[in-house]
Amino acid sequence: MGDAGTGRRVVKAVFPAAGYGTRFLPATKAQPKETLPIVDRPAIQYMVEEAVRAGLDDLLVITGRNKQPIEDHFDRNPELEDVLREKGKHEELEEVVRLAELGVVHYVRQAEQLGLGHAVLQARQHVGEQPFAVLLGDDIIDPHEKFLERMLDVFEETGRPVVAVMPVPDEQVASYGIVTTHPRDGDGLHDVSDLVEKPSPSEAPSNLAIIGRYILTHEVFEVLADTPPGRGGEIQLTDALRTMARDEPIVAVEYTGARHDMGDTLGFLKANVALAADRPDIGERFLGWLEGFLEERRTS
Ligand code: G1P
Q1: Which of 2, 30, 190, 203 is the S-S candidate for 181 at Cβ 3.0 to 4.6 Å?
Q2: Is 77 exposed, middle or buried (0-12, 13-18, 19+ CB in 10 A)?
Q3: How far from the centroid of its chain's Cα atoms is residue 168's Cα?
Q4: Cα–Cα distance measured from residue 38 to residue 30, given in angstroms and rounded to the nearest whole number
Q5: How far is CA 215 from CA 35, 158, 160, 169, in A?
Q6: Residues 180-215: tens digit of each pLDDT
């Protein structure tokens, strides 16, 4: 790919994880939202494994107060390892060690929660002048789709920031960043000329919503540093991308696979059910139980 290709190779992934998780109180009073379990692993593990699978092994988590359990989860735990070894629990031992070796995990604290754009800005020093991926914790996407890999390919081809989008029903546009797009050559690719954060249905230029995956260039930091608070009084990543898209379109890749939005309790429960059903070890038994449970509810 020559020089351009090398400059477009992405190895860094950023995981904003500093929010209060107020939609999950009281569970999140003393525990980070990102470590709430989906089946038997903390939510953030799904995102980290997705990034690692796509070849990103320099991982930066943007944390805040009360986020120590995230650091512990991706670290070695010698006492636990000793206990597992003594008890002959080899699979469990392998798994806890593997988690500490997924990639190099770095942490930076966001001292004040001033919005997603502000959280991403905290990555500036670590990321330097390299392109990087951002994975938001609310969206779990189907690993079989290899979607992050696809976004990285699109970035290598275009060199422009890439966002993941999906159509949402009109009544949900106010929960997302919404894009104005023009079809681009290639399957499911769009040029984005404008973006608006959480518009009302009447203001929304389309129903294509940004889901939580971005490939960004370092120019976004300079723009974010100058971006005033927007929707909700917060510094919005969407607003910075809007500024960048005015100069040259950014690229949207449409995701069509299964996605679990864990932004609220109902989504969180659905994600647990769907991912439990997909598990080779317990899926069949779980679905058998669920069918019985539903039948009983219907007839009682
Ligand atoms: C954030 C972004 C929004 C995006 C969404 C995807 O919002 O600001 O543009 O559509 O993530 O999950 P949040 O859900 O953090 O309010």
Answers
A1: 190
A2: middle
A3: 18
A4: 18
A5: 24, 11, 8, 25
A6: 999 887 788 999 999 999 999 999 999 999 999 999
pLDDT of residue 21: 87
pLDDT at 4 (0 to 100)? 45
Q: Rounded to 5 degrees, what are φ and ψ at 270?
A: -60, -40
Q: How much distance in Å is there from the Cα of 116 to the middle of ligand 1? A: 8
As a whole number of angstroms, the distance between CA 20 and CA 250 comes to 30
pLDDT at 6: 54
Q: Which atom of ligand 1 is nearest to the CA of 237?
A: 8
Q: What tens digit of pLDDT does each residue of 150-185 get?
A: 999 999 999 999 999 999 999 999 999 999 999 887
Burial class (CB in 10 A: 0-12, 13-18, 19+), 261: buried
pLDDT band (50, 70, 90) for residue 3: very low
Ligand 1 atom nearest to 238, measured from its CA = 9
- From 33, 113, 136, give the residue whose CB has the most ligand 1 atoms within 8 Å, as the site to mutate: 136
| Per-residue confidence band for 227, with pLDDT thresholds at 50, 70 and 90 | very high
146-152 mean pLDDT:
96
| Pocket (CB within 6 angstroms of ligand 1) | 116, 136, 138-139, 176-177, 197, 209-212, 236-238, 263
User: Pick from 227, 152, 217, 155: which is nearest to 197 by CA?
Assistant: 227
How large is the angle between the packed helices 265-278 and 283-299, nearest 10 degrees? Answer: 130
Ligand 1 atom at shortest distance from the alpha carbon of 176 = 10
